[in-house]
Write a structure and sequence with these properties.
about 600 residues; alpha/beta; Aminopeptidase; Alpha-Beta Plaits; 8-stranded mixed sheet; 27 strands
């Protein structure tokens, strides 16, 4: 491997090279630019890169569990599980102990004399985005920045799952939003984790964050989905080990967390459940388990957290005094798992604590000297890829790196954490689960579908939005002069007919016609019109609350009695309900910013 292939243009010292040791057949890191022979003795600080090993999966068969999926607790409460005939969630690879050896940072001894000193450029630091699945940090950008080309080794670390049509084939679409579903599973894999709660569990979707990155990469929204949310899980098609497909029947009125692992459900089932709830399609997923929390928190040298009060939780074994701490390993796992230490001891309060932990991870990686240390980069990249199970669409280091570079464009101050608005389940006397608060959740989901930021971003985006809104400026036609054909391309049966009835009876638009179902389904409502119909389009947009993005103006004028074409999409919720997303989050929906440190209360 030559220096160019390792990214000299990425501002890495070409002296920091991975070279082939002919005695061992392995690649080794040379930190000395003196040109010493790679066959010589390695410095003690240099990590050895093992040869690629085949991905392994946990094939251990679990005992027959309960079917109900009821109220498991982080402290070891019972998890609901499916039938014995199910197939397990893809197991995480066995990993190093959280207290095991890691690559040491170069102390400057040995070959350090010949190296030129260098400082991490500010521009490169700003590209680092480190985000987590509620309980773990992903250091994917470290792979992009390092340029070590150790793809064979890191690819061997990754576990992949083919989720079929649940995800997209492309890593990302340039100029389009990106949705990544981060799943933290409670599967008890890894050394020392058997004693946490139900060790026989196949794993649940225990911590879930839909990470939405805007089309222009200026902002991101991290939407936490409570595991105890009562919802409907749709039918999902899963890939079997022999290559065949199996449809897992859906289940109504059940906890969200059983969308994974139970009855043979894979991460694709969780992705479909998220789409059904939010209307947002997850492009890809990344899944991690308990062991990843311990390993990655240790790999970054600990994560800073702040406690407003002392905590001693015998169930999670968290024992910390009030004030600031840097935690890693078992303490980090206990911190993100405790539900008896903060707030009203609910899972919703635990989500807040996990969001604070993630925000601290992000800030640390933005300010740390990790990018200036080749050994730290290697250690983080190695731990991150070992921690991940991903869909086959991003199942290589090259694809993960490309995705990470896109995500890394987002400034920390424009990353907002928010939790799906919920209410206590009215069907329960003892409150253990929650239901969707539709009055607040629907506007929030609409904002994300319309790619509306929860934070104020740069003036360029505002200017682009102003240009788009220009279509709504101008004269309006009288309602009686509006001529429109209505098609149903959404999921509500009879939506075209009900809309036409509403337009004619409530809005005074007699020249509206029901054209029944559209040729195909569409996510977003669209109004197609000719330039000489612009006044009619504005009038109809006012009536229906259409956003400027829904207006599609053609190039040729309409002739005679030609009508506009309105196609209702999946974002259409009913006649008289505005289609346009709000510009601000609903009141009383707490937002947290990744750039702001907070103390857990």
């Amino acid at each position: 491997m030559d220096a160019q292939s390792r990214g000299r243009a990425d501002e890495f010292d070409p002296a920091d090279q991975w070279v082939l040791n002919p005695d061992t057949g392995d690649y080794e890191l040379r930190l000395n630019n003196s040109g010493g022979d790679s066959t010589g003795a390695r410095q003690e600080t240099e990590p050895r890169v093992p040869r690629r090993r085949e991905a392994t999966h946990d094939s251990e068969r679990r005992g027959a569990p309960r079917k109900d999926g009821g109220g498991h607790e982080a402290d070891g409460g019972g998890h609901g599980r499916g039938s014995a005939a199910r197939r397990e969630v893809p197991g995480q690879r066995s990993r190093r102990s959280a207290n095991g050896p890691r690559g040491k940072e170069d102390s400057g001894s040995g070959g350090a004399e010949g190296r030129r000193s260098r400082k991490a450029p500010k521009a490169r630091r700003k590209k680092v985005l480190l985000w987590t699945g509620g309980t773990v940090a992903f250091v994917l950008v470290a792979l992009a920045a390092g340029g070590y080309a150790l793809y064979e080794h890191f690819n061997g670390n990754l576990n992949t799952v083919d989720v079929g049509t649940a995800g997209n084939k492309n890593v990302f679409d340039s100029g389009a939003p990106v949705n990544i579903l981060i799943i933290g599973t409670d599967k008890r894999t890894g050394k020392g984790n058997e004693g946490y709660g139900d060790k026989g569990s196949d794993g649940h979707a225990d911590t879930n964050i839909l990470f939405h990155v805007s089309a222009d990469r200026t902002n991101a929204t991290a939407l936490s989905i409570p595991r105890d949310l009562i919802t409907d899980i749709p039918d999902c098609t899963t890939k079997q080990p022999d290559g065949s497909e199996k449809v897992v029947p859906g289940t109504s009125n059940i906890r969200f967390n059983v969308s994974l692992g139970q009855d043979g459900r894979d991460p694709g089932c969780t992705m479909r459940t998220v789409e059904q709830i939010t209307g947002l399609k997850a492009d890809h997923f990344m899944m991690v388990d308990f062991n990843a929390v311990k390993e990655l928190s240790s790999a970054v040298g600990g994560v800073k957290v702040c406690l407003a009060k002392p905590v001693k939780d015998p169930k999670s074994h968290l024992d910390l005094s009030a004030g600031e701490h840097r935690i890693q390993g078992e303490d980090a796992l206990a911190f993100v798992r405790t539900r008896h230490s903060f707030g009203n001891e609910s899972d919703l309060d635990r989500i807040k604590v996990q969001q604070q932990f993630i925000g601290s991870m992000i800030r640390q990686m933005k300010s740390d000297d990790t990018l200036t240390s080749p050994t730290k980069l290697y250690g983080l990249a190695d731990a991150a890829t070992k921690a991940l199970t991903v869909d086959s669409g991003i199942g290589s280091v090259k694809k993960l790196t490309a995705l990470a570079q896109e995500l890394g464009k987002v400034d920390t101050k424009n990353i907002t954490f928010v939790t799906v608005p919920v209410l206590d389940n009215p069907a329960e006397k003892v409150k253990a689960t929650v239901v969707l608060n539709e009055a607040k959740a629907d506007p929030l989901f609409a904002m994300m579908r319309e790619d509306t930021s929860l934070t104020e971003v740069n003036a360029q985006k505002k200017k682009a939005k102003s240009k788009q809104d220009a279509l709504l400026k101008g004269p309006r036609a009288a309602a009686a002069d509006v001529r429109v054909d209505v098609y149903n391309g959404g999921d509500i049966p009879g939506a075209a007919q009900s809309t036409v009835a509403w337009l004619q009876n409530d809005q005074g638009v007699p020249k509206s016609t029901n054209k029944a179902n559209a040729p195909e389904k569409t996510d977003k409502t669209a109004l197609e019109f000719a330039p000489n119909q612009a006044d009619q389009a504005r009038a109809l947009a006012d009536m229906m609350g259409l956003p400027a993005s829904a207006l599609k103006q053609g190039t040729a004028d309409a002739e005679g009695l030609q009508a506009m074409v309105l196609t209702l999409g999946r974002d259409f919720k009913g006649a008289g309900i505005p289609v346009a997303a709000p510009t601000k989050a609903p009141k009383d929906v707490p937002l947290a910013n990744a750039a702001k440190a907070e103390c857990a209360e």
